[in-house]
Fold this sequence. Notes:
single chain, Porin, two-stranded antiparallel ribbon
Amino acid sequence: MQPLWLLRAGAAALTAILLLPGQVYALDDSNPAGLITETVASRDRLKDYDGAKQYGAQRVTDRIGRHYQPIGIRAGNFILRPSAEAKVIYDDNIFASPTNEVDDIRTEISPSLVIKSFLPRHVLNFAFDGRLVSFAENSDQDFTDARASFDGALHIDHAHTFAISAITELAHENRTELNAAQFAAEPVPIHRSKISAGLTRDVGRLFGTISATAERFDYYDVDAIGGGTLDQDGRDTDILSTQLRVGYRFSPGFEAIGKLRLLRQLNGEVGPSNTDANGYEALAGVAFQTSPLLRWRILGGYGIRDYDEISRETSGTSLFEGHVEWLPTEKMTIYGSVSREINDFSGNGFASWVETSVKARVEYEIYNNLFLKLGANLAQAEFQGIDRNDEIYSGKIGLEYYMNKNWLFTFSYEHEQRQSSDDLYDLTNNKFMIGAKLRF
């Protein structure tokens, strides 16, 4: 179960995208800390450096946002955008079991309030949302999620931006997650908190962001299948990290990129179950446009996890990122990606896992207010510390119908299959969903 087949598949998929006739589109680089990294200078520079904007090209997602964005409620220099969404989902394997699957229908009610600033120079945004989930026949699986987040940016001058973001949420574990508790009688509650801060300099050809992040995952104890309590304290994780992202634009549409990340992972356990570790990751590569409507991003590097517990061997693996975005027609956008990354979450006997994945996504405008979305994902997970390797295959097809600026209706079908070297983690899952969202 080597990742070679995934690499070949990913290379073939990206090559096929490049060779198809037509025009292609630009892809933005991402900041690992999730901060606002735009400066006044970088915003102005897009007029000359982003060929897609010169030609007025837009992704399908951009057109949706422009034509069907609700007006909102004006309050001084802020826009309030409340919304409420209702979904009905049929799930044929709610416990993600390898055998004796249990199906059920659940409803989800999701209220939300987004407060977006329109200040003369700076950014100050807030968001609050929740999710109430109830099952038709298995009411003991009901749960409620809640989340609050903040994003801010201070444009110090033309070239520099200081940004900060914070989030706190009470969520419940999806049973299809690779590190999900297999013997939990109910969804495991997780309290997650994260705060990041960073400074960006972006003017002219040279740009970069240095940032720091503190993140905590607190898993709550739950009842176990068969009785008793399932202790989740061993999964609690604190991750302290600092990131450096630098780049150089050597011509319009072509830039070199480098990323460095240092982290400290803590879980508070002692003895063999301890997963405290120091982590090091470095990647370098290029982002370039094949035409005014295309950008590729290709990076490669290496990652290391050095564990405090002497019984855990230091692990190292190659890392890479490959992304492409393409507009074959005005009504279609195609995305492709290949990646290999380290996931720092422990579970039953393992301290982390390395995931190699190939993803593709298509967005198509059937009519001016009806959109088709297709997605596929192939992934392989290699777990550290135990003899377990998983292969995951998933696909999704959905329709989005924007009746007007206020009403959105969604329909989707999703299939996931996991084949593991440990039969306990095999699963097949199908979900059918219909939803309606009211936005203001």
